[in-house]
Write a structure and sequence with these properties.
By secondary structure, the protein is of the alpha/beta class. It folds into 2 domains: about 325 residues, Adenylosuccinate Synthetase, subunit A, domain 1 (Adenylosuccinate Synthetase, Chain A, domain 1); about 100 residues, Adenylosuccinate Synthetase, subunit A, domain 2 (Orthogonal Bundle). The chain contains 11 helices and 20 strands. Helix 3 crosses helix 4, helix 3 runs parallel beside helix 5 and helix 10 crosses helix 11. About 50% of the residues are buried. The structure holds inosinic acid and magnesium ion (MG). Inosinic acid (IMP) binds next to helix 4.
Length: about 425
């Protein structure tokens, strides 16, 4: 197969980074196509930990091309910092290998200021955003006042638009949100530096990908966040501001419709969520603290503790269908060792009626009661297992049941944080 997309089926943090990093070995090009640095992929390679926020996971291999597609919103200063850090820690050479779409939008300091001021004003009703300005940047894109990377080429014109935006946003910050305005002083100089360093990376990424595919190269699309955070299909308004389902590969990545060969869904062996919003299988007992500690469930972007819950097969099944995904990688199975019994949510009860589908509105998820099936747990550590047959019987039974309920074919099982701690049953690039 030549084009594969990796998509999160839960609320993000499913361990996509690790799976993308593994598949990147067999790809030529790795593409991010939605979101911004609200995503954070944690990778452990040779004992060193890397957190990638904007640069696709292919960065850790010397020869892969990394593409940032037009569907992304990119904080240019954060991107430069990430490039520098990757260069320092992993000898990453961005020249020729990092392609940034002319049409990607820039996240500006006023976007971050607006995001944070709005959240502060919402108080208890806050979405729990990362505060990185993602929503306000997408708003400007749709309102047609956003700044795209292509505009850096004509700096005087870019500066005029930036000053115009700043004037308007500062009035909004001061008068409506009662927040501090953003200073223009250092910003223009900073953008000159951004121009100097990023202009060489600008690229017609859709054209580049079309050429790459004609050359027979393999392209890997790296999804960010998760299906339940999708702007249309997630638990709105407790969602992120981009399309997170696989169709974003076409709009945000520039792949023509029909050219995607496989969609690999990723799910954690249990569920987590950062930020507010409905979460039917959330665990509210001390078991949540135990799982959080064992699974290191703290946001990689914001370090917030993640909410923790049981595996929700109703939502995973919906996500697999929405994404057109038939194959599933399940991560962090090792974290469930020692938990007995383990539970899977197989249905919901809504006003006394049993449903195996989500209610008509995802927001109604806060009114459903999960129906659990309990399975016997296992005590053995899994981190050195590399074959499905080496797993304890109860762990295999858990996997089988979970896949049966989710309508998925299991192709990978994660048993630890590092690159090699994974059982691969099928590699979508090689099948
Ligand atoms: P925003 O994307 O910063 O606007 O945040 C909106 C919601 O999406 C918040 O609940 C965030 O915690 C959540 N979110 C955004 N990106 C991620 C991610 O990569 N993993 C998990 N949650 C995320
Ligand atoms: Mg993450």
């Amino acid at each position: 197969m030549k084009t594969v997309a990796v998509i999160g089926t839960q609320w993000g943090d499913e361990g996509k980074g690790k799976i993308v990093d593994l598949l990147a070995q067999d790809a030529d090009v790795v593409v991010r196509f939605q979101g911004g640095n609200n995503a954070a992929h944690t990778l452990v390679v040779d004992g060193a930990t890397f957190i990638l926020r904007l640069v696709p996971a292919g960065a850790l291999y010397p020869s892969k091309v990394c593409v940032i597609g037009p569907g992304m919103v990119v904080d240019p200063v954060a991107l430069l910092q990430e490039i520098d850090e990757l260069q320092r820690k992993a000898n990453f050479r961005a020249n020729g290998r990092l392609k940034l779409s002319y049409d990607a939008h820039m996240v500006m300091p006023y976007h971050r200021a607006i995001d944070r001021a709005r959240e502060a004003r919402l108080g208890k009703q806050a979405i729990g955003t990362t505060g990185f300005g993602i929503g306000p940047a997408y708003e400007d894109k749709v309102a047609r006042c956003g700044l795209r990377f292509s505009e850096l080429a004509d700096f005087p014109s870019f500066e005029r638009k930036l000053r115009r935006n700043l004037l308007e946003k500062n009035r909004y910050l001061k008068l409506v949100l009662k927040a501090k305005p953003v200073a223009v002083g250092g910003l223009i100089e900073q953008m000159r530096e951004v121009r100097r360093r990023l202009l060489p990376h600008l690229c017609d990424t859709a054209g580049y990908l079309a050429d790459a595919r004609e050359r027979g190269q393999r392209v890997l699309f790296e999804g960010a966040h998760g299906t339940m955070l999708d702007i249309d299909y997630g638990t709105y308004p407790f969602v992120t501001s981009s399309t997170c389902v696989s169709s974003a590969v076409f709009t945000g990545g520039g792949l023509p419709c029909g050219a995607l060969d496989a969609v690999l869904g990723i799910a954690k062996a249990y569920t987590t969520r950062v930020g507010a919003g409905p979460f039917p299988t959330e665990i509210k007992t001390r078991l949540a603290d135990q799982l959080r500690a064992k699974g290191a469930e703290y946001g990689s972007a914001t370090h917030r503790p993640r909410r923790v819950g049981w595996f929700d097969a109703v939502l995973t099944r919906r996500a697999m269908r929405l994404n057109g995904a038939s194959i599933l990688a399940l991560t962090k199975l090792d974290v469930l060792t020692g938990i007995d019994p383990v539970k899977i949510c197989v249905a919901y009860t809504v006003k006394g009626a049993r449903k195996t589908d989500v209610p008509y509105s995802m927001m109604r998820l806060d009114q459903v009661q999960p129906v659990y099936e309990e399975l016997p747990g296992w005590q053995e550590a899994l981190s050195d297992k590399r074959e499905l047959s080496q797993l304890p019987r109860n762990a295999r039974r858990y996997l089988e049941r979970l896949c049966e309920l989710s309508g998925a074919k299991l192709v990978m099982v994660g048993v630890g944080a590092s690159r090699e701690q994974i059982i691969v049953l099928e590699n979508p690039f090689l099948s």
